[in-house]
Amino acid sequence: MGPQELRAALAEARRTLAPHLDADWSVPAGPLEWSCRDTLAHVGHDLLAYAGQVAALPEDGYLPFDLTVRPDAGPGEVLTTALACGELLALALAAAGPGARAWHWGPTDPTGFAAMGVAETLLHTHDIATGLALDWTPPPVLCAAVLTRLFPDAPPGDPAPVLLWCTGRAALDGRPRRTSWTWRAALRG
User: Fold this and answer.
1) Mean pLDDT, the chain, integer
2) What pLDDT does residue 189 have?
3) Which of 11, 51, 54, 67 is deepest in the core (most CB within 10 A)?
4) Distance between CA atoms of residues 145 and 20, nearest Å
């Protein structure tokens, strides 16, 4: 995974959310306690944090900065901010060599940060779409790539429902909805 998959996820988020900027973004984002607006600000925060990690390559922790989105920023401004943060991550990924390693609960390569960026974008777009009562499912090709990189023990099946199950958003073929989960971005061995 790399910048091209991240940019595809960002384009999907824009395509899905931009037509609904006049909706009530104060409602909860699907199963989350955050509002749709705050969930989108969280996406920007995480994408910017990942970009910082890939650019600085710290070995033992996260850089001490956070994205703060002004409380008066409307959904359109928050969407633009999140997409800009995603583009910063895409640029950092494009500049990083394959041997680069940065901290995310262990040494993580650029493909891990790309996969996390795609996952954050797709999953939270799904949460927001659910909150706004939109019928949207993450693209299977991107979901499959996320599953391969971050959830190597995922069960077989249609990638979008499997990713939603892996991240505690839905039940799956007789498997109850997960209440706890983690992804594996750091490289082992």
Assistant:
1) 97
2) 55
3) 54
4) 28
Residue ranges in the chain whose pLDDT is less than 70:
189
Q: How many CB atoms lie within 10 A of CB 81?
A: 21
* Residues 111, 52 contacting (CB under 8 angstroms): no
Residues with Cβ within 8 Å of 19's Cβ and at least 6 positions away in sequence, in order, are none
pLDDT at 18: 98
How far apart (Å, rounded) are the C-alpha atoms in residues 33 and 38? 10
Place of tokens 């958003």: 169
- Please list, in sequence order, all residues whose beta carbon lies within 8 angstroms of the beta carbon of residue 127, skipping any fewer than 6 positions away: 29, 30, 31, 32, 36, 39, 169
Both tokens of 9, joined, read 């996820």
State if pTM tops 0.85.
yes
Contact between 79 and 14 (Cβ < 8 Å): yes
Residue with tokens 């650019």: 55
- Token digits of residue 141: 């090709």
Residues with Cβ < 8 Å from 90, sequence gap 6 or more?
3, 6, 7, 10, 117
pLDDT at 188: 72
Instruction: For residue range 88-124, list pLDDT tens digits in order.
Output: 999 999 999 999 999 999 999 999 999 999 999 999 9
- Other CB atoms within 10 Å distance of the CB of residue 59: 9
